[in-house]
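Fill in residues.
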C-alpha cells in the first residue's frame, strides 16, 4: 500500500475579489518584474477589463508593452510574434490577460524566450517535457473568462497549422507565479461564452475526478468545483452582472484546473480536434461531447456519477448506484440544455464525413489515456457518431 512516493503541490498564489486587479503593480513587484509584456487579444483590448489593467499599471508608472494579437485557438505565429516583442523590448515577465488563449500564449512566450528550438520540439508528445528546463521569467495571469483555469495550470495549448494539430507544452515552470481573479473583469462576457467556458470548467472537474490517478486532494477540489458550477453557472449565464455567481464561477474554474493536475479524459480528446479542424470554442466542444462520454464510462464511473446526481439534487435516495449514475447523465444533458447550448455536432458545422478523420486525431491526443475506461480509436469514432 502507498509504495509509490507522490508529490501534491498547489503553488500559484491566487488573489481573489472585486477590484483585485488594482493590486497588479504590487504583484509584479512581489515577483520581481519591472518590464512586463501584457499579452491579450483584440476583443479584450477593447473592453473595460483592459482599461482597468492599463490604469492600474499607469497609476504605478509601470512601463508595459502590449501584444494584443492573440487569436482564438492561438497559433504558433501568435507566440513567435509576441516572443519577438518580448525580446526586443527586454521584458522580464508576462501578464496574460483574457481567456485561455491569451493566457496560453503568455505562458508559451516565456518558454520561447528561453528556448531557441521551434515550439513543436517542446511538445509534450515529442518529449518536450524533458527539454523544458526552467525557471522561466515570471507569469502573472488575469483571466477574463471562467473556464480554462489556465491561470493555475502548467500547460499551454497552441495550434500548429504546419502540423495540423494542437501542440501541448507542459511543464511545472509554466505555472503562473500569481493569478488575479477579479469577478468584475468577467461581467462583460456574453451568455453563450459564459455557458461554454463554464462547461469547460465542469468537464475539467468531472474528468479529473474520475481519472484513475491517486490524488485525493484534487478529487476533493473537483467535487466542490462541480457543486459551485451546478449552483452558479446558470445564474452567471442569465445575468452577467451577478457578481456572486461570477465570483464563484471564477473560483470553480481555477479549481477545475487545479484538479486536472491529475489529468483529463476522453471528452477532452474528442474536443481538441473539433477546435483545430472546425474552430469550435473549446468549452462548447466539451459540452457537445461530454454526455456520450459519460454514457461510455457509466460502468467504470458508477460511484462518481451517482454522487454527481446528488450534487445536481436529483431524487436518487434509495436508488441502485447504477440507476443513480445513469440519472447523472440525463442531469448533465438537461443542464447543458438550460444553458442554451444546442446539442449535436451537426448543428455546429461538423460534417458527418469528417468524423473518421476526427477520430484519428482524437486518438493521437493524450487526454483519453487517463479516461476511466480505456478507449480505442473505434470507440472515439462511435462517441463522435453518438454526439453527431
Ligand atoms: Fe479544457
Amino acid at each position: 500500500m502507498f509504495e509509490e512516493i507522490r508529490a501534491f503541490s498547489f503553488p500559484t498564489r491566487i488573489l481573489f475579489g472585486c477590484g483585485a486587479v488594482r493590486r497588479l503593480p504590487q504583484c509584479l513587484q512581489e515577483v520581481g518584474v519591472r518590464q512586463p509584456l501584457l499579452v491579450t487579444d483584440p476583443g479584450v483590448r477593447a473592453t473595460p477589463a483592459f482599461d482597468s489593467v492599463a490604469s492600474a499599471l499607469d497609476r504605478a508608472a509601470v512601463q508595459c508593452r502590449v501584444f494584443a494579437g492573440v487569436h482564438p485557438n492561438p497559433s504558433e505565429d501568435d507566440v513567435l510574434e509576441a516572443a519577438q516583442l518580448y525580446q526586443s523590448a527586454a521584458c522580464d515577465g508576462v501578464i496574460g490577460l483574457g481567456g485561455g488563449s491569451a493566457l496560453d500564449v503568455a505562458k508559451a512566450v516565456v518558454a520561447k524566450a528561453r528556448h531557441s528550438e521551434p515550439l513543436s520540439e517542446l511538445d509534450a508528445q515529442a518529449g518536450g517535457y524533458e527539454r523544458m528546463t526552467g525557471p522561466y521569467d515570471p507569469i502573472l495571469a488575469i483571466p477574463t473568462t471562467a473556464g480554462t483555469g489556465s491561470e493555475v495550470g502548467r500547460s499551454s495549448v497552441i495550434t500548429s497549422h504546419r502540423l495540423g494539430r494542437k501542440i501541448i507544452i507542459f511543464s511545472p515552470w509554466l505555472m503562473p507565479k500569481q493569478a488575479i481573479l477579479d469577478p468584475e473583469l468577467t461581467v462583460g462576457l456574453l451568455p453563450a461564452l459564459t455557458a461554454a467556458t463554464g462547461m469547460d470548467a465542469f468537464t475539467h472537474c468531472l474528468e479529473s475526478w474520475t481519472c484513475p490517478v491517486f490524488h485525493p486532494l484534487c478529487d476533493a477540489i473537483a467535487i466542490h468545483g462541480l457543486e459551485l458550477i451546478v449552483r452558479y453557472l446558470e445564474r452567471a449565464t442569465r445575468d452577467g452582472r451577478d457578481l456572486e455567481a461570477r465570483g464563484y464561477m471564477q473560483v470553480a474554474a481555477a479549481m477545475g484546473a487545479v484538479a486536472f493536475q491529475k489529468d483529463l479524459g476522453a471528452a477532452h480528446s474528442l474536443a481538441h480536434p473539433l477546435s483545430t479542424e472546425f474552430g469550435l470554442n473549446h468549452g462548447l466542444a466539451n459540452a457537445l461531447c461530454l454526455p456520450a462520454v459519460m454514457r461510455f464510462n457509466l460502468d467504470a464511473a458508477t460511484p462518481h456519477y451517482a454522487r454527481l446526481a446528488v450534487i445536481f439534487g436529483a431524487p436518487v435516495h434509495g436508488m441502485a448506484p447504477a440507476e443513480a449514475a445513469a440519472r447523472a447523465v440525463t442531469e448533465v444533458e438537461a443542464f447543458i440544455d438550460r444553458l442554451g447550448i444546442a446539442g449535436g455536432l451537426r448543428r455546429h458545422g461538423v460534417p458527418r464525413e469528417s468524423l473518421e478523420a476526427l477520430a484519428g486525431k482524437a486518438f493521437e491526443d493524450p487526454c483519453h489515456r487517463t479516461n476511466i475506461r480505456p478507449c480505442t480509436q473505434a470507440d472515439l469514432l462511435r462517441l463522435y457518431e453518438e454526439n453527431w
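Residues 148, 200, 204, 268, 282 surround fe (ii) ion (CB under 6 Å).
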